[in-house]
Amino acid sequence: MLYVEWAEAQLAEIELLTSMFPTMEELELTDQLAAAELRDFVEGSASAHSPPALRPQFLIKQRLDTANTGMTDVTLSCAYPSEYPSVLPEITVRCAGLSRAQQTQLHAALNAYLMENCLGEVCVLSAVDWVKDNLPLFISKSLTAATAPKKESSPQAEEVFTRLWIYSHHIYNKTKRKSILEWSKELGLSGFSMPGKPGIVCVEGPQSACEEFWSRVKVLTWKKIMIRHREDIPLDRQCKDSRTVEGVESLRKFTGFEEAMFDPHGNRGNHMDLGQLYQFLNEKGCCDVFQIYFGIEGR
Asked: Which residues lie closer than 8 Å to 186 by C-beta, 6 or more apart?
């Protein structure tokens, strides 16, 4: 019955949002089929044994008046996990007036607010109100940071090559999977992601880029996510400028970044063949990580 109750709450919130934001310029349902499946599930819930496979996703678009930049366009991208509202929705705020770092901080603050005040209740409207109240503060910080004089980097700073092995309870959501691919490409990281249950992500490259990737990923809504293992390799300080790039490239075990699938199976096709995963890691010279993830030796 819990899935039915959660689905009813989701549908009621979507209907409320539709009435409050009646135009496509304000509210856009990006997956009409998912919304239709949710409605069918609620209306025929007596014969349903599991929630719909597709999850509703939508965009709420607002134009806010901020003191520093005037009218600012902001978009909230929202997706419902099956268990919402017993867990938080997946909300990403997009605003041209924010730097990447400020967006990360805003997401962390928003999730903390929702976790403390709204868990167990529908909360998208609360998120919209919070963004209206707090976005100007983050934009002001972003502008201050942009105009502040930049400090010269310390000549003693040591370049470090990093490889992060990230574990998640599961990775199903298409938006998260797309973000992982886009962010790794943007930051020049190589590695792979394995969706399903469990979910695995490996990124490698300059330490600063890996840390930025992790700062973005960890603030998304997850049932469980952690860095299971990390490798930090100092680069020779004599390898400067273009030769630093050569040093980084020589340490990579992956070429580019890909989403890797290993014979998906199970009722929802969300479990991977761990034997194939082990062979993949072995080919990349990373087979020791298999035991770190799963506590057993692969073969």
From this structure: none
